[in-house]
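If you are new to this repository, start here. Below is one unmodified record pulled from the training split, so you can see the exact layout before writing a loader.
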Amino acid sequence: FFKQKTAYEIPLRLVGSEMCIRDRVGGHHHLIINNAYDVDKNMMEPIPYGANILHFGGGQTEAVLSLNPGKYTLQLAAGDHEHRPIKPFGASKEYKPVSSRKITIEILPN
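And here is the target side for that same chain:
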């Protein structure tokens, strides 16, 4: 749980995602804010666009979020060129997509 008064800088890194993304054409990170998309339940469907789902298709390794004061849940998910959550390399039929654990941050008023 993090508390901060200014913009929140986050690294866009998932352990093991570099290999998964490199091995697929156009893979990239998605930042999911406030549980706007359930990666595990929708792993066969493309990650949609939305105000609380940010796509980083330019190979970004970090981003600065400017959020209003309040609490937020953040999660990174790796998606392929069609925005579907990526299956971990070598995973069996039963798997969880490549994604981070969810973290909670709080932006405090100035």
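Two things worth knowing about this chain: The first helix runs from residue 17 to 22. The first strand starts at residue 2 and ends at 4.
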